[in-house]
Amino acid sequence: MAGNQSTQRLWRDVSVFDGHDTLPEPMAVVVEGERIASTVPMSRFDESLARECREMGRGGVMTPGLVDCHTHLVFAGSRADEFENRLEGVSYAEIARRGGGILSTVRATRAASEDALFEAALPRLQALMDDGVTTVEIKSGYGLTVDDELKMLRVARRLGEALPVRVVTTLLGAHALPPEFENDSDGYIDRVCREMIPAAAEQGLADAVDVFCEKIAFSVAQCERVFAAAEAHGLPVKGHVEQLSNLGGAAMAARHAALSADHIEYLDEAGVAALREAGSVAVLLPGAFHTLGETQLPPIAALREAGVPMALATDANPGSSPLFMPTLMLNLGCVLFRLTPREALAGMTAHGARALGRPELGRIEVGAPADLCLWDIDTPAELAYAVQPGRLRQRIFNGRLEGGNPS
Ligand code: DI6
Ligand code: FE
């Protein structure tokens, strides 16, 4: 059985969403080693190819492995109490001003050992993987001391070594003002710029640098200092901007050629134009919008009109988006933000990858890394239409079968 010895693996009769669009015909997809070797419409399929390959699957929908380009997966503690407070009418910003919110997770995360953080994050990451994720970004931002931020980033790196998933790390030292720096936010930004960023860069722990630009966090000028320090250490930047108000953080991020501007509910026309000119990705986070009961919608029509690539991510975190299910975001992106299913899927594949500075990922294309999902559905739109776990038949990571629910 020479065919079974082959290193080439074949999926046939699959409906392919390639990262941007659904291909017009059923396809055969061949993987060799870690890469996609060929994609052939079934109308031109030659059975001799099947003899050279090991058949892995037939039928269903094949997408790139999902790319979750914005998460805060590493943390300790729970914020279920704040969830109840918010239901009683206390706002997210008010909880933050009272020292809860992000700072509550900071207290728990500082107190947790590196191993405890790792163990706590494993099932969260596994949940994302079981729902099709093959690339995930993980931010720090709940340590807010040099040591605790580096601890979080080491945990993120370890997760990527322990599990079959690509982990991209982001230093979010400028997430909230730690209590030690009360009334001295510029002093804390000095610490981020002069100690945190250099240490993370030197130890190779961060792939990018992020900020929270908001009235309850840091000003545009402070965030710009963080970006300048990141650039001095060769790290790309991105920002949580225009989530709760419009400070002009997106335009500032665009001036620094940011990989992405994230949240952006309050983004205005000038911000949209700035993102377009910079080639930055707009990252939409419907989980936080949903959880916080927001009503201000991101300017989807303007972004679409301007041709700004829109990514979609979970923002998985213990406060504003305790949602660890990427395919739910496809649904929420469509229902809440009026994305088309095609836009939502592109947002969790090709555009998500671009928001991470990894444009070779999130696409089904000859030569691309073979990170793939085979779903038990008939059309790609069904992934966004129904919220239904268990439809992932196969998860292929770097050319190897690593998960799914084979029927
Ligand atoms: N915006 C968010 O949605 C997360 N961080 C941020 O700046 C939320 C973090 C949290 O509430 O713990
Ligand atoms: Fe976030």
Structure description:
- The protein has two domains: 8-64 and 363-401, Urease, subunit C, domain 1 (Roll), CATH 2.30.40.10; 66-355, Alpha-Beta Barrel (TIM Barrel), CATH 3.20.20.140.
- It has 407 residues and is an alpha/beta fold.
- It has helices spanning 2-5, 47-52, 80-87, 92-97, 102-111, 114-130, 146-162, 185-202, 220-232, 249-255, 269-278, 286-291, 300-306, 326-337, 341-347, 350-355, 381-385; strands spanning 8-16, 27-32, 35-41, 54-58, 61-64, 66-68, 133-139, 166-174, 208-213, 237-241, 260-263, 281-284, 310-312, 372-375, 392-397, 400-401.
- The model has no long low-confidence stretch (mean pLDDT 96).
- It is built from 17 helices and 16 strands.
- The two termini are 25 Å apart.
- Helix 6 (114-130) packs across helix 7, helix 8 runs parallel beside helix 9 and helix 10 (249-255) runs parallel beside helix 11.
- It is globular, with a radius of gyration of 21 Å.
- The structure holds 3-[(4S)-2,5-dioxoimidazolidin-4-yl]propanoic acid and fe (iii) ion (FE).
- The site of 3-[(4S)-2,5-dioxoimidazolidin-4-yl]propanoic acid has 15 residues, from helix 5.
Give a brief description.
The chain has 17 helices and 16 strands. By secondary structure, it is α/β, with parallel strands linked by helices.
Round the mean pLDDT to the nearest integer and report it. 96
What would you say the CATH architecture of the largest domain is?
Alpha-Beta Barrel
Quick one: biggest sheet? 8 strands, mixed
Q: What count of domains describes the coordinates?
A: 2
CATH topology of the largest domain: TIM Barrel
Number of strands: 16
CATH superfamily of the largest domain: Metal-dependent hydrolases
Query: Spans with pLDDT under 50 lasting ≥5 residues?
Result: none
Structural class: alpha/beta
Distance between the termini: 25 Å
- Please bin the fraction of helical residues: 25-40%
* CATH level-1 class of the largest domain: Alpha Beta
Bin the strand percentage.
Answer: 15-25%
Bound molecules: 3-[(4S)-2,5-dioxoimidazolidin-4-yl]propanoic acid, fe (iii) ion
Number of continuous helical runs: 17
Rg calculated over all Cα atoms: 21 Å
Shape: globular
